[in-house]
Design goal:
The structure is a single chain. 33% of the residues lie in helices and 19% in strands. Helix 3 packs antiparallel against helix 9, helix 4 crosses helix 5 and helix 5 runs antiparallel to helix 7. The chain is elongated. The structure holds adenosine-5'-diphosphate and magnesium ion.
């Protein structure tokens, strides 16, 4: 197992069910196995679980190489488990998981660990066997952003993702074109083109009327830029530059007149990995923004129907059937995960992902949405997001700024005394000394006997960790 056992006082009074962390822990039936307690206790070393029944915002922190992505994979495995293995994950009601993967390292989560020529992979397999984690099955899909990002070396099961142009919002357009849609002439020209194409229609070449379209692609916008409606209002240079950027966007194959609905990407019990590494950074933020925004909008509608079914005593049978159909066919409850979150959620400036995520962490719970953000730099995350985190999983942190950012936002007490050998340590010392794969978990709503943060050794992985360096 990853790290040493810590002597923490007062010692934990471990409940019979093991240590369950997260909202609703006291009566929880749904959860994923995270690892084992890394503290001295009188009893046998207990298992540590994270609850998944209720919605929550989880922050996963740690310096590079401390085990964040490995741990995120552990949690996601639990959500995507297909086998019946109640020692790994339990769910009375399955959720979907949507992971934004900026490094393209999670597609391997589809594969159970097996013996391998690679020594590290083989090591993980041996551990998995010892922990009864070998031979399990997982439901994982990976999406590459746009037909053009598919590579000949890709496995056949990677799916190309398409985003409908009409789904792009102002912030996303600003990021994609690298201009302000509000104040920049090019942005204003774009807004005009969208109006011409989707709303009013316009006179095309030879005076032929082009009717408004509900579904339109980037070439439709480029064509409208040649109309007199556009050329009489905007400088030729502005329109030329805009057409050029639309054509670069088009080359990704990511945008179409018709795109994937978020509901077509998500399925209960399935982990959907959105691979982002192949896209320029500005495009990545827009994709995360538009998909997350769609997810929130759709879940808001489904959650309202769910609430009426439970809370509205005046429902007639016919109405009930309609609502049940809305819930049945609607987007499932989802856990949204974002790795390397510091590149998406920094304060200041315009960021299409950050502004959607601020709403997501504040309102998502009401819509059946949980969030996991993982970052090596908690101090670089917008405070409005940090302050909403209720479950902290902190791996090794070394800078005071990052440690302070975590400690200032913890929702549970820290232990009175921590000892290592003969040394008495502060909480910050302990964070600095954690070994890879070891973390401190602090949850807002703990089992009544657990009102403090606990040290955990993360369990071995049941699927291949794609972050291994070859
Ligand atoms: N719980 C663990 N058990 C065993 N090895 C681990 C564990 N967590 C991390 N490691 C090792 O540390 C390496 C770096 O972990 P990773 O999660 O990729 O780091 P980062 O914090 O940068 O995301 C992994 O490739 C793996 O070899
Ligand atoms: Mg990582």
């Amino acid at each position: 197992m990853p790290g040493p056992i810590w002597k923490v006082k007062p010692p934990l009074d471990v409940p019979i069910a093991g240590v369950w962390l997260g909202p609703g822990a006291f009566k929880a039936t749904d959860g994923v196995w995270l690892g084992t307690l890394a503290e001295n206790v009188a009893s046998k070393t207990p298992n540590v679980w994270v609850t998944t029944g209720k919605e929550q915002v989880v922050g996963l922190f740690g310096k590079r190489g401390s085990g964040k992505s490995f741990t995120l994979g552990t949690l996601l495995e639990g959500l995507a488990l297909k086998s019946d293995a109640p020692h790994v994950a339990r769910a009375s009601r399955r959720k979907a998981a949507l992971l934004f993967d900026p490094l393209d390292i999670y597609w391997t989560t589809r594969f159970p660990v097996t013996s391998s020529a690679n020594a590290e992979v083989r090591g993980h397999f041996d551990l998995a066997k010892a922990w009864k984690l070998a031979g399990l099955e997982f439901d994982v899909e990976a999406w590459v952003p746009g037909e053009s990002s598919k590579r000949p070396s890709d496995p056949a099961w990677f799916k190309p993702l398409t985003i409908a142009v009409s789904d792009l919002g102002v912030d996303e357009w600003s990021a994609l074109l690298d201009v302000s849609v509000i104040s920049d002439p090019m942005g204003q020209a774009l807004v005009e083109l969208i109006t011409l194409v989707s709303d009013t229609g316009y006179s095309g070449t030879g005076g032929k009327e082009v009717p408004p379209l509900k579904a339109y692609g980037l070439p439709d916008l480029a064509k409208a830029a040649e109309s007199t409606n556009a050329t009489s209002t905007f400088h030729a240079e502005t329109l030329r530059a805009l057409r050029q950027r639309l054509s670069s966007l088009h080359a990704t194959g990511l945008f179409g007149a018709i795109g994937h609905a978020i509901g077509a990407i998500l399925r209960p019990g399935c982990l959907s990995v959105i691979m982002l590494a192949r896209l320029p950074a500005a495009y990545r933020a827009a994709i995360v923004g538009v998909l997350t925004r769609q997810l929130m909008e759709q879940r808001a509608a489904v959650a309202f129907a769910e609430k009426r079914l439970v809370l509205d005593p005046s429902l007639q049978p016919a109405e009930r059937m309609i609502l049940e159909a809305v819930v049945e066919s609607g987007v499932p409850r989802t856990v949204v995960a974002l790795d390397e979150a510091q590149t998406f959620l920094a304060p200041g400036g315009g960021s299409p992902t950050r502004d959607v995520f601020i709403r997501l962490v504040k309102e998502g719970r009401n819509f059946g949405l949980s969030v996991i953000v993982a970052t090596q730099q908690p101090a670089a995350i917008d405070r409005r997001i940090l302050s909403q985190i209720e479950t902290f999983v902190a791996h090794q942190l070394v800078t005071s700024a990052d440690i302070d950012a975590v400690v200032a936002n913890l929702k549970s007490a820290i232990p009175d005394v921590i000892e290592f050998g003969n040394l008495a340590l502060s909480f910050a010392d302990m964070l600095r000394m954690l070994s890879p794969g070891q973390c401190i978990v602090s949850a807002a709503d703990m089992n009544t006997t657990l009102r403090r943060s606990v040290a955990v050794n993360v369990r071995p992985r049941a699927t291949v960790h794609g972050g291994i360096e070859l």
